[in-house]
Amino acid sequence: MEKLFDVLVVGELNVDLILSDIEKFPEIGKEVLAHGMTLTLGSSAAIFASNISSLGAKVAFLGKIGNDKFGEVVLESLKRKHVDVSMVKTDEHAGTGATIVLYVDEDRANTTYPGAMDLLTIEDITEEDLKKARHLHFSSYFLQPGMWKGLGQLFKMARNLGLTTSFDMQWDPKETWEMDIEAILPYVNVFLPNEMEIRYLTGKNDLQEAIDYIKKYTETLVVKRGNKGSIVVQKDYLFDLPSFLNEKVVDTVGAGDSFNAGFIFKYIKNENISACQRFGNLAGAISTTASGGTKAFKNYETFRKSALDNFGIVI
Ligand SMILES: Nc1ncnc2c1ncn2[C@@H]1O[C@H](COP(=O)(O)OP(=O)(O)OP(=O)(O)O)[C@@H](O)[C@H]1O
Ligand SMILES: [Mg+2]
């Protein structure tokens, strides 16, 4: 049967309030002026959802917001990217997650209020929700304590219903790196950490040792390596693909989520793993050509033009 969505994204939702052009960091008890301000959709899962939708996939989001103005900003931003929000839950007791970002030149200081992000649990996700999609992507494990216990079960449920699955655990702000690998990764088709994250998760400083440890648990391991590109690992297969190097990086915000969007866009079309990796590297590189996480992904046509103009790649 034809599914309603190609991808269901489960993850954190928050806004970023970015204050820029600040003369100096504020001191306790004093006040400084910022000459720039932007309010945008901030979460990593939402950047993934927006960008894979812009590439042409049919995408739905399931996450938790508060009943407030920031929640409206989140919903409007997703809708503008043609992401279905009918499965987003509203919590009456917590506010929508928000990060205040203070930019002084290149340095920044962030403060995050997790709010409703803390409260999403497996109880919020039904078999009926999962059945609407062909693929499940989950992002930002450490930011969603409500999901810690149930994540393995969620992936297992999805796989039993015939969905394929992908997982980007992202950074652990508390740096505990406590995650039940054995309960989660066997039900994940594509695991997408970056190089630092997989080292910390395994406690192994040597990348090859970290890869050897994790590849036992998951079908496809993808290690993102910034401007060095990515490594894809399956049983007896390992391919290290250099990046489409961007010499004039605007910013790297969302490069990892854009990589995920490119990789999974090809994966859900059943393309071979090297085509997925190449498209992931390309999407990550294209993301660095514009500010923020979603600007470089307007639609497939502009993406195609950017690939040609910036990297000489025909897609
Ligand atoms: N300067 C760059 N030039 C070209 N490609 C890049 C550059 N930086 C990143 N990429 C591409 O984007 C991919 C993902 O970037 P990165 O490794 O920074 O992910 P990440 O650390 O998960 O990022 P995020 O902070 O968004 O979570 C890389 O694997 C690479 O293919
Ligand atoms: Mg990342």
Describe the overall structure.
By secondary structure, the chain is α/β, with parallel strands linked by helices. The protein has helices spanning 44-55, 69-80, 127-131, 151-160, 181-184, 195-202, 207-214, 255-267, 273-287, 300-311; strands at 5-10, 14-22, 34-41, 59-62, 64-66, 89-91, 97-104, 107-113, 133-139, 164-168, 190-191, 220-224, 230-234, 237-241. The protein has an 8-stranded mixed sheet with strand order 4-1-9-10-11-12-13-14, with helices on both faces. Helix 1 crosses helix 8 and helix 6 (195-202) crosses helix 7 (207-214). The longest helix has 15 residues, at 273-287. Residues 168, 170, 194, 256 line the site of magnesium ion.
| Order of strands in the sheet with most strands | 4-1-9-10-11-12-13-14
Bound molecules: adenosine-5'-triphosphate, magnesium ion
Q: Which CATH architecture would you pick?
A: 3-Layer(aba) Sandwich
How many domains comprise the coordinates? 1
Helical element count? 10
Overall spatial form: globular
- Percentage beta strand: 15-25%
What do we call the CATH homologous superfamily? Ribokinase
Topology:
Elements: E1 5-10, E2 14-22, E3 34-41, H1 44-55, E4 59-62, E5 64-66, H2 69-80, E6 89-91, E7 97-104, E8 107-113, H3 127-131, E9 133-139, H4 151-160, E10 164-168, H5 181-184, E11 190-191, H6 195-202, H7 207-214, E12 220-224, E13 230-234, E14 237-241, H8 255-267, H9 273-287, H10 300-311
Parallel strand pairs: 1-4, 1-9, 2-7, 5-6, 9-10, 10-11, 11-12
Antiparallel strand pairs: 2-3, 7-8, 12-13, 13-14
The protein binds adenosine-5'-triphosphate and magnesium ion.
